[in-house]
Amino acid sequence: MKPLNERFPRPELVSRINLMAKSVGGAAEMIPLDVEQMIAASERVTGLNDFGDHIDGDWRGRLFGLIKSLEEEADLNVMGRLQVRQEILRCLQSRLYLTKKITDTPAILDEEILQPFIITGTGRSGTSITLELLGQDPNALSPIAWQAFHPTSDLGNAEELIAITECEQNLWTDVCPQMAAIHELRADIPDECIGVQKPSFGGMFWWVLHDVTSFPMDPEAAMKYQKVVLQAMQYEHMQNSSSAKKPHWVLKTPTYLPMLDLVFAIYPDAWVILNHRDPLKTVPSGMSTLAATRWIRSDRDNYDELLALAGNARNDMMMDVFHRREAGGLPQRFVDLHFSDLMADPVKALESVYQQTGREFEKSYIDAIKNYLEHKPKGKHGKHSYQPEDWGLSTETLKAEAKPYLESYQVKIES
Asked: What is the SS3 assignment for 35?
């Protein structure tokens, strides 16, 4: 198989910056990740010192655990350490500003997050476009990236925050240009929930992007933090809205799949939109996506780890959900959405989602879907090409492993 440096060749400037570390004793000497120093810097910059321990518990212990795992296991290069340091500083400052906001306005915590759409499923099964399209409903809210990164306006107005967020998003494709065709990153489209959960230092974002096997994840803490962010965003929305009707949230991440019990514990009346797609597409695409994402921050070429994350375990999780639904072990609040149906007729597919969840499918929403798709042509950033054999996988083996999943959910084969 091709090594990652051939699959995702780096721009010369990025390669030079990473190589500079050898002149000073390594990347850690150039970009330190000292927890106490970053905490002190965040307090100095904001003039605040309450990080909101009451929101999600021992965030400090999780941050120390994350840094320990990153230092010992992730093999971050210079660009990787630069991105991680910036993200941690932003997350710390975001915690400070969010805590001040809810302290000044306690009514924020009275906001009810009612009947959210929770989009999940196997990675690369169309969850992102589902999020974007469901988020076009004028009666819906979704965590737009610039707002999710900066849930308070302390760093500037909307225009400034969009520019700051766009810069951070664009750096991914500056380091790995192929990411533009793999996954669109923009400040003005909805962010995946693992991004919203970042400041908890307990969510899956840190584990997905880095090889940190000992990182002490805390999904419950991550979900609790996320809910407060949503409450703050909803409160502001309601203050600026002429309608007393509360919006419904549209949230998404494939990492909800193994934690559906927690999802329903936090959002008891949620509707889970379970996306389905041919594993012969999702598995190699997932391999490619994870490889590119991790290659942005590390020089490690760890095929076995990538295969474990992107492989047949996802089919197993989908089958576990199937059996639990059949046995009544999960609330009957699921809608199965097939990628092939969504691509064939987005309006019809989403109208079916609304019918099953008892929501009105308004004409203004239909028009918004069509308008959005007209301005989002497929492949505008290039084509993301992948085949199972490109990653040392066997098409026939994948078919055999996926058979129970394909048959149980009646998933259409694309290839």
From this structure: helix
DSSP-assigned states of every residue in 278-295 = -HHHHHHHHHHHHHHHHH
Rounded to two decimals, the pTM is 0.96
pLDDT tens digits, one per residue of 183-193: 999 999 999 99
The Cα 358–Cα 350 span in angstroms is 12
CA atoms within 13 A on the CB side of 200: 27
The DSSP output letter for 198 is: G
Using a 10 angstrom Cβ sphere, with 0-12 exposed, 13-18 middle and 19 or more buried, the burial of residue 30 is middle
Whether 282 and 122 have beta carbons less than 8 Å apart is answered as: yes
Q: Which residue has the higher pLDDT, 305 or 296?
A: 296
Strand order in the sheet with 334-338: 140-141, 248-252, 117-121, 271-276, 334-338
Q: Quick check: 350 and 341 in contact, CB under 8 A? A: no
Contact 28, 197 (CB under 8 A): no
What gap in Å lies between CA 200 and CA 410, rounded to an integer?
A: 38
What average pLDDT does range 311-329 have in this prediction?
A: 89
**Rounded Cα distance, 289 and 122, in Å:** 13
> Residue 278 and residue 411: Cα distance in Å, rounded?
6
Return the domain boundaries, the chain: 4-409
Q: Tell me the pLDDT tens digit for each residue of 77-125.
A: 999 999 999 999 999 999 999 999 999 999 999 999 999 999 999 989 9
* Phi, psi (degrees; rounded to nearest 5) at 271: -110, 125
pLDDT band at 312, cuts 50/70/90? low
Fold of 4-409: Rossmann fold (3.40.50)
Question: How high does pLDDT run on average in the chain?
Answer: 94
